[in-house]
């Protein structure tokens, strides 16, 4: 087991990543698992009611129960909203039972979202353990400060020792909320770039065969939640103007799946659009990215959300796939317009149709952008580099091994 010391060796400081009810986020967790190479003993504290497998995570996993009553209440949107108004936790279902006992002996607690109830659990723990909070949100003052929970959000801002914004925009948002520069260390989530890589010719042939792609087909892949903000309807509305050789593979699930299927039928493009549902993370590269000609992320910003650092884009670039993405949120931090792909205005189907057709008809451009994307991923999103930066930041603050 990584990070385990031999008999008689000095115990490594336990770095406890707290993901609670959130699903495993492997590009994020890979950075923390790599801390084992820097003298730490990383571990993940999660909830029992999540679907990821422990062996996916890359470090020891412990799971805690969440309150059964809270779980049942939060399944009802109206009651869940009421609970969120009056509860000291966002939803009772998010609370980790036995938390205080579980973190005894930890040297550092690292909840993975500033607004999640486990972040408040971490800063409220007694005796105090240093708390390092991971942050994705790139909209400052995006918290409903009229609600009772806002006091807990503010407590995390005040009491956490260190913040890890996972994008430059997230770092900017924290600065706007009053977090001093010495309490922020901006790093990117990272990949194991030996595993996330371009395919061999045989691997690509098998992936395209599995997708049913014919010679000359342009396979366009989307990976993400099937919700309005991810721009799936923009893609579907762009399809009628496409050459018949363009095929759209939608990987993921969500509340808008049925509506997306209905729209594809109404537009007459069902034969060129496939919805695959949720696919295990470990299979996405092999089954989809290795067979893709183009990766798309047509995100649409809303007043409460804009695309955070898009990890699926990073994975596509690591696999050598060019990217078309919206010019919104943190996407421009990852996609170099005209180099690793193209940035487009969100929610304009005609613009997306034209851009996809241009890429579909220019194999040399796709190859050049794919190579540049791989090089960019190696420069900016290597988990080993991110882990080394994090380890050094922790040591400078007295939170790591001597």
* Low-confidence residue ranges: 1-8, 70-90
Number of beta strands: 12
In CATH, what is the homologous superfamily of the largest domain?
Glycogen Phosphorylase B
Mean pLDDT: 90
Largest sheet: 6 strands, parallel
- Following the backbone from N to C, one meets helices and strands in this order, namely EHEEHHHEHEHEHHEHEHEHEHEEHHH
- Shape annotation: globular
Residue fraction in strands: 5-15%
Description:
The chain is α/β, with parallel strands linked by helices and 402 residues long. The protein folds into two domains: 14-190 and 382-396, 3-Layer(aba) Sandwich (Rossmann fold); 201-380, Rossmann fold (3-Layer(aba) Sandwich). Helix content is 36%, strand content 15%. The protein has helices at 26-33, 68-74, 77-86, 99-102, 117-124, 150-159, 168-176, 201-211, 232-238, 257-267, 281-287, 311-318, 349-360, 363-380, 383-396; strands at residues 14-20, 41-47, 61-64, 106-111, 132-135, 162-165, 218-223, 246-251, 273-275, 294-297, 323-326, 341-344. Strands 9-8-7-10-11-12 form a six-stranded parallel beta sheet, with helices on both faces. It has a four-stranded parallel beta sheet with strand order 3-2-1-4, with helices on both faces. Strand 5, helix 6 and strand 6 form a beta-alpha-beta unit. It is globular.
